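User: Could you go from structure to sequence for me? I need the amino acid at each position, not a summary. Structure tokens:
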């Protein structure tokens, strides 16, 4: 009887050892090649979107800064022009610069139409000193006589017209994102000074700004100022 129990005990021990030493079920480790490819595609797509968005933002910011600087330059030249006399004080009206004036020295300009067809690159202050930050820019000034009528303001060919339309065009250097320069236009309407206003007082009536946006749109902003001229119907 003792022998039988011993045999049973040995069988149980052998069975238990066999169960405990059985090899574990293999488990999958790592990722498959397909999962790696899918992950790479997702990461590449996200990086591409981020890089594209950053490039567009940088381009828009650069164009916005250039536009602002262009309008600052145009305003500077318009302010310089609008404080001059409406016309030459000499008896003979000469459109443009007179013989005693020099296109290379704006301090000799004494009336608005002296700036007609004036162009300079790089732009300078009235005294000839350089304007910092505009080394490769070009400024062109257009002055045209004008009259008021029932439909608004019309350009006139007569130098003794009571109005002047002054337009400043600023051209920036070639932009790296577009490969082309940027143009900015600002215009003012100046009227003849009445007899009760001194000649050294600016008589600017309104200023027009042309804004160009990155998507190709443009808008004209007209800001009324002072001294509205009386229409001559």
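Assistant: Here is the amino acid at each position, in order:
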């Amino acid at each position: 009887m003792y022998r039988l129990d011993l045999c049973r005990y040995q069988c149980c021990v052998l069975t238990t050892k066999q169960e405990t030493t059985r090899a574990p079920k293999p488990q999958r480790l790592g990722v498959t090649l397909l999962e790696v490819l899918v992950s790479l595609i997702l990461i590449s797509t996200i990086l591409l979107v981020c890089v594209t968005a950053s490039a567009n933002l940088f381009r828009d910011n650069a164009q916005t800064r250039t536009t602002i600087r262009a309008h600052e330059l145009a305003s500077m030249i318009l302010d310089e022009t609008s404080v001059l006399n409406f016309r030459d004080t000499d008896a003979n009206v000469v459109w443009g610069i007179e013989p005693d004036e020099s296109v290379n020295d704006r301090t000799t300009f004494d009336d608005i139409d002296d700036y007609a067809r004036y162009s300079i690159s790089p732009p300078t202050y009235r005294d000839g000193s350089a304007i910092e930050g505009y080394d490769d820019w070009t400024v062109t000034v257009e002055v045209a006589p004008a009259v008021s009528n029932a439909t608004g303001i019309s350009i006139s060919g007569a130098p003794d017209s009571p109005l002047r339309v002054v337009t400043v065009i600023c051209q920036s250097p070639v932009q790296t994102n577009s490969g082309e320069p940027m143009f900015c236009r600002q215009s003012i309407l100046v009227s003849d000074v009445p007899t009760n206003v001194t000649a050294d007082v600016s008589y600017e009536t309104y200023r027009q700004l042309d804004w160009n946006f990155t998507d190709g749109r443009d808008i004209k902003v007209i800001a009324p100022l002072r001294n509205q001229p009386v229409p001559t119907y």
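One structural detail worth keeping in mind: The helical segments are 2-20, 33-82.
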